[in-house]
Amino acid sequence: MIEKISIEKYIKTENDILIDLRDKTVCSFGSLPEAVNIPMEEIEKLYSLPKNKRIVLFCQKGDYSGEIAELLSDNGYNVADLTGGYRKWITSV
């Protein structure tokens, strides 16, 4: 089961790896604090992340992160999807 978290209410824990799925150019203009950028075109890198951590994903609007969360969940990862994406977060801060 994929945990859905409102991006405005997300609080990072030490067990989380926060992943920004947007491309490098877009991400260079801003991202969530402590996020690691792994663009969608480098999706294979996600499979090298540790399975003992919660992988928290977000993208621009929340569309792609949900799809990628399902892929990781199907492969045994503990995954959370930040709904609303970066666009929603930037308007809530």
How does the SSE layout of this entry go?
Blueprint: E1 3-6, E2 16-20, H1 24-27, E3 36-37, E4 54-58, H2 63-74, E5 78-83, H3 85-92
Parallel strand pairs: 1-5, 2-3, 2-4, 4-5
Could you characterize what this model shows?
With 93 residues, this protein is of the alpha/beta class. The protein has a single domain, classed as Oxidized Rhodanese, domain 1. Helices cover 26% and strands 24% of the residues. It is built from 3 helices and 5 strands; from the N terminus they run ββαββαβα. It has a 5-stranded parallel β-sheet. The longest helix has 12 residues, at 63-74. The chain is globular, with a radius of gyration of 12 Å. The termini are far apart. The mean pLDDT is 93.
Gyration radius (Cα, Å) is 12 Å
Count the DSSP helices: 3
CATH architecture: 3-Layer(aba) Sandwich
Q: Show unreliable segments.
A: none
CATH hierarchy class name: Alpha Beta
- Could you tell me the strand content as a percent range? 15-25%
CATH superfamily: Rhodanese-like domain
| Count of structural domains | 1
Main pleated sheet: 5 strands, parallel
The end-to-end span amounts to: 29 Å
Which term fits the overall shape? Answer: globular
Structural class: alpha/beta
CATH topology-level fold name: Oxidized Rhodanese, domain 1
Strand order of the largest sheet: 1-5-4-2-3
N to C succession of SSEs: EEHEEHEH
Mean of pLDDT? 93
Amount of helix: 25-40%
